[in-house]
Write a structure and sequence with these properties.
The protein is of the alpha/beta class and about 375 residues long. The protein has one domain: TIM Barrel (Alpha-Beta Barrel), CATH 3.20.20. The protein has 14 helices and eleven strands. A five-stranded parallel β-sheet has the order 7-8-9-10-11, covered by helices on one side. A four-stranded antiparallel β-sheet has the order 2-3-4-5, with no helix packed on it. A hairpin with a 5-residue loop joins strand 3 and strand 4. Helix 6 crosses helix 7.
Length: about 375
C-alpha cells in the first residue's frame, strides 16, 4: 500500500497495513535547536534550507521524513510580497493585517499591538486597512512544489496553514483578547461585524491561494486555537452563535469540489466544541493535547471516532522528555486508544520542543511503525 492510499484508508475509518504517520505538519514541526541536533545525529549534512525564517521551527527536512517513512508532505505557502513589514515608534513589527509583534526571546514574536483595541465603533472596522488577498507571494512557490510532489511521489499532500490562525484568532489579534471576549457578551453587534469582516478577508485569501493548487493537493490545514489547558476560551453556545457559520463558509470553499479535506489544529481542552467542529466540516482534528482537561483519548475516540479522524495525541509536555521506556509506552497508549477501526494519524500533540532528547524522537517514530500495524494487538 502506498503512502497516499494509507492516509485515505484512515480517512475512511478503515484499517489497512498500519496507521499513517505524520511529521512537518502545521503542528508537528521540530524546533530549530532540536532539528539541528537530530540532523547531526542522523548524519544529514548540510542542514535543510530555512523555509520558515524568523520562526522557532524554521526548517522542513524531508530526509527526516524518509528516515521515519512518514506518509505526508506539506507544501508551504509563502508570505505576501507586496507588503513589507515595518517597525512602529513603539517597537512593534507591523504585519499586513496591521497587527504588531515584539521579540520576546522565547517565541520569535508575540502579539503586542491590537489595531482595533480602542476602536469601538462598527464604522472603525471598515476603515481598517485590510490585507490584499491577491498577492502572488502567497502562491508562487507552492504551485510548482505541489505540482512536483503530486506528479513524482505517492505522498498524501496537505498544505501548511496559509494564515497564522483563522476567524477566532484574527478577531482577537485585531481587537485584543479581553475586548473580544467582552464583545461576545455585551457588544454583540460589534463582534458580529468584526467577525464578518475577518471572515470575508480570510475567504478571499484562501480562494486566491487554494484554487491554483486544487488539483495537486489532498487537504488544507488550518490552525484555530480554541482551548486553554483547563477549558475552551468560549463555550459551545458562543462558538455556535459567532464562529460556526463563518468557519463553515471557509471550509465549504475548500471542499466545494467534493475532494479536498479540512485538517484543523486546535490544542487545549476543546472536547465541548468537537460536535460543532464536525458539523462545520472538519475532517481531521489535530492535535489532541492529552494532558489538557477532559481530553482523555479513549473517551474522545469513543464519543466522536465515527464522525471525525484524529491526528496527533502524543504527549510532548511531559512524556517526550522522559526515558526511552516512557516514550514507547506513550506511543503504545495513543495507538491503543485512537487506532482501532481506523480514523487515526500518528503524530505529536504539538511541535517537538528543544527540551526533548533527540533519541526520543527516533524512538517515538520507530515505536509507531512497530506497534501501529493492523490489527492492533493487546498493547
Amino acid at each position: 500500500m502506498n503512502h497516499r492510499d494509507r492516509v485515505i484508508s484512515a480517512l475512511k475509518h478503515e484499517e489497512c497495513d498500519r496507521i499513517p504517520i505524520d511529521l512537518w505538519s502545521s503542528d508537528s514541526r521540530i524546533t530549530n535547536d532540536l532539528y539541528i541536533r537530530l540532523a547531526k545525529k542522523l548524519g544529514f549534512e548540510p542542514l535543510s534550507e530555512k523555509v520558515r525564517p524568523g520562526t522557532t521551527a524554521e526548517y522542513v527536512d524531508y530526509r527526516v521524513s524518509d528516515y521515519f517513512d512518514t506518509d505526508f508532505r506539506h507544501p508551504l505557502f509563502g508570505a505576501a510580497k507586496n507588503f513589507e513589514k515595518y517597525t512602529d515608534s513603539a517597537g512593534n513589527v507591523i504585519d499586513e493585517w496591521g497587527i504588531g509583534h515584539k521579540y520576546t526571546g522565547i517565541t520569535k514574536h508575540q502579539i503586542a499591538f491590537h489595531p482595533l483595541s480602542n476602536k469601538d465603533n462598527i464604522s472603525d472596522i471598515s476603515k481598517h486597512k485590510w490585507p490584499v488577498a491577491a498577492d502572488e507571494g502567497r502562491t508562487e512557490k507552492i504551485i510548482p512544489e505541489a505540482k512536483k510532489l503530486r506528479e513524482s511521489t505517492d505522498y498524501y499532500l496537505s498544505t501548511s496553514t496559509l494564515t497564522s490562525g483563522l476567524v477566532f484568532e484574527f478577531s482577537w489579534y485585531l481587537r485584543g483578547m479581553d475586548n473580544l471576549l467582552m464583545d461576545l457578551y455585551i457588544n454583540k453587534k460589534y463582534a458580529h461585524a468584526l467577525i464578518e469582516a475577518v471572515t470575508e478577508k480570510l475567504l478571499e485569501i484562501h480562494k486566491f491561494s487554494i484554487d491554483p493548487i486544487r488539483d495537486y493537493i489532498d487537504a488544507v490545514e488550518f490552525a484555530n486555537d480554541f482551548g486553554t489547558q483547563k477549558q475552551a476560551f468560549i463555550p459551545r453556545k458562543i462558538f455556535d452563535e459567532f464562529y460556526k457559520e463563518p468557519m463553515k463558509l471557509i471550509f465549504d470553499e475548500i471542499k466545494k469540489d467534493g475532494r479536498l479535506k479540512v485538517i484543523m489544529h486546535s490544542c487545549g481542552s476543546i472536547k465541548e466544541l468537537i460536535p460543532s467542529f464536525i458539523e462545520i466540516g472538519v475532517d481531521v482534528l489535530s492535535s489532541l493535547q492529552p494532558s489538557a482537561n477532559d481530553m482523555d483519548p479513549l473517551q474522545i475516540k469513543k464519543e466522536f471516532g465515527r464522525d471525525i479522524v484524529f491526528r496527533g495525541g502524543v504527549d510532548i509536555q511531559n512524556t517526550m522528555a522522559g526515558t526511552k521506556e516512557m516514550v514507547i509506552a506513550e506511543a503504545k497508549k495513543r495507538i491503543k486508544a485512537f487506532a482501532p477501526g481506523g480514523g487515526y494519524i500518528f503524530g505529536p500533540s504539538n511541535h517537538f520542543l528543544p527540551h526533548i532528547p533527540v533519541e526520543n524522537i527516533i524512538t517515538l517514530y520507530e515505536a509507531a511503525k512497530e506497534f501501529g500495524k493492523y490489527p492492533i494487538g493487546g498493547l
